[in-house]
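Exercise 7. Given the encoded structure of a 551-residue chain, write a plausible sequence.
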């Protein structure tokens, strides 16, 4: 057959010097497609061809419906259709449902054709914008045949309009993308939140948590998944946590619950917790988001502020009476000394006078302690070797240990000083009094004797977790620790240990005034340092002091 029955033939093959096989194939396809068109088939048939030497495409046959969709004449299809393509979604082993734009399609055209030649078929969906019309989606399914003797390939295919289906898929994909983006943003917010966020069920079982749990409690997220949040609370906080969970499930949210959590190392974490319920499609609350804010440092600062105010109040009182009281004591002590020199007292009277003078001298020393709290007690600093101050305090302390030896008790000092220990800018008199007060407490805690361990080393406060434990600005410090083997101190008394007049010891002639550690706290604070008391695992306590260093 030289030409199809339809006189409106738009192709080239039937009019060119082509092989009989190629011409018969094209003619038969055209006749078959015209028959399909005549019975109103849904498919929009076409026969396209291209010369392998230049790759230019033309149409041997195209359904009139194809031309109507593209708003062009049959001989314009090979130009209008490619230019109207927005993108092409390819379904093949190579492209894996890949969507490529019109410009990308031009670059990948040869690759697509080569794959079509190898597989013998193509399947894709075109998104096109015909001139003057709305966007149309056309599904293309074709068979590729090659005729090497003619250097020509033909694509025998059919188009199906799938605009509604593809628009629905586009909306679904946009919704999925929006959901994925929302989930990504949520996850980023969740992962990078400055506070600890825990997702739990109504009973406190941990379903998810962000990485902030590691610096907060010392566990990794993997360590706690499946555990109960109640397991990480201090015993007194567990009931409050469960009540907050119950109230959140009932009311939707609960705010500002203060709880005490236990870290992996046994330390406590003061936290302010806000709870919000998550609801399902039916509005039922099943899960709870817990926002946990670490307020340990804030609580420490508040306690420091309260303690400082207490000391300031004591200082105001001391400043008002100390100097006048010292003047009175000076007169009393002076007259006692004159009476000793010129009086004619019998033995018992002299003994009474000596006892009164001794009491007056101790009262004089007590008023000097009060002066430490007053404004006149501000340190006069100079560069000082700290180890020498400590050794002077130890030497003065050992002069008063005769009573230990008489009672069969023995007091020993173990020292550990860094060889390259930095100096510090301190008031020597005040810091010596600090060390004397701490050593006196250590001796009184060991009435049967024992060892006092004294150490001093260089340290640097750098990381945030250091600052949470040691509320000091970043910088270089000398860390001094004085430890005893005494009876220790009950945990409930640790918060009050630096309060003026607080003491766990008996009131008496040599002990129980309750000013030693208060004075130590006041002096260290005025030196821009930090002092804390910690129980020792082996018994007794350690008093740890940080002083700004002069490297």
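Solution.
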């Amino acid at each position: 057959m030289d030409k199809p029955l339809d006189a409106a033939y738009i192709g080239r093959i039937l009019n060119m010097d082509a092989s009989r096989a190629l011409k018969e194939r094209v003619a038969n396809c055209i006749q078959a497609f015209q028959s399909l068109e005549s019975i109103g088939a849904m498919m929009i048939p076409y026969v396209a061809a291209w010369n392998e030497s230049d790759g230019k495409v033309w149409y041997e046959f195209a359904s009139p419906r194809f031309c109507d969709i593209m708003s062009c004449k049959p001989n314009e299809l090979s130009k209008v259709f490619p230019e109207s393509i927005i993108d092409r979604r390819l379904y093949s082993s190579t492209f894996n449902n890949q969507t490529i734009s019109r410009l990308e399609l031009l670059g990948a055209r040869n690759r697509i054709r080569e794959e079509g030649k190898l597989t013998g078929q193509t399947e894709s969906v075109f998104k096109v914008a015909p001139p003057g019309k709305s966007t149309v989606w056309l599904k293309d399914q074709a068979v590729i045949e090659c005729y090497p003797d003619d250097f020509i390939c033909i694509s025998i295919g059919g188009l199906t309009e799938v605009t509604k289906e593809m628009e629905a898929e586009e909306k679904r994909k946009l919704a999925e993308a929006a959901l994925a983006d929302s989930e990504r943003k949520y996850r980023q917010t969740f992962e990078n939140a400055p506070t600890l966020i825990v997702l739990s069920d109504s009973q406190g079982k941990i379903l998810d948590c962000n990485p902030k749990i590691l610096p907060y409690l010392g566990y990794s997220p993997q360590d706690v998944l499946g555990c109960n949040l109640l397991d990480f609370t201090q015993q007194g906080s567990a009931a409050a946590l469960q009540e907050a969970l119950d109230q959140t499930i009932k009311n939707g949210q609960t705010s500002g619950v203060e709880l005490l959590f236990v870290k992996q190392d046994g330390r406590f974490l003061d936290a302010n917790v806000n709870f919000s319920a998550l609801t399902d499609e039916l509005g039922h609350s099943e899960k709870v988001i817990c926002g946990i804010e670490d307020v340990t440092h804030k609580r420490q600062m508040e306690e420091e502020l309260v303690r400082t105010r207490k000391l300031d109040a004591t200082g105001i009182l001391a400043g008002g009476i100390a100097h006048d009281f010292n003047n009175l004591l000076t007169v009393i002590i002076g007259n006692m000394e004159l009476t000793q020199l010129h009086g004619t007292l019998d033995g018992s009277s002299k003994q009474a006078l000596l006892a009164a003078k001794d009491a007056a001298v101790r009262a004089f020393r007590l008023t000097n302690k009060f002066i430490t709290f007053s404004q006149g007690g501000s340190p006069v600093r100079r560069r000082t070797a700290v180890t020498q101050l400590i050794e002077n305090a130890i030497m003065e302390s050992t002069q008063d240990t005769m009573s230990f030896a008489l009672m069969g008790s023995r007091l020993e000092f173990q020292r550990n000083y860094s060889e390259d220990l930095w100096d510090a800018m301190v008031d020597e008199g005040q810091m010596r009094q600090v060390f004397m007060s701490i050593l006196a407490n250590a001796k009184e805690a060991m009435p049967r004797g024992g060892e006092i361990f004294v150490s001093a080393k260089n340290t640097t406060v750098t990381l945030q977790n250091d600052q949470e434990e040691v509320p000091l600005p970043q910088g270089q410090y000398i860390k001094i620790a004085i430890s005893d083997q005494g009876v220790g101190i009950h945990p409930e008394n640790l918060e009050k240990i630096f309060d003026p007049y607080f003491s766990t010891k008996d009131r008496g002639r040599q002990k129980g005034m309750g000013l030693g550690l208060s004075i130590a706290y006041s002096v260290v604070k005025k030196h821009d340092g930090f002092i804390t008391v910690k129980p020792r695992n082996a018994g007794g306590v350690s008093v740890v002091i940080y002083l700004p260093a002069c490297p």
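Remark. Residues 242 and 450 are 47 Å apart (CA to CA). Students should compare their own answers with the one above.
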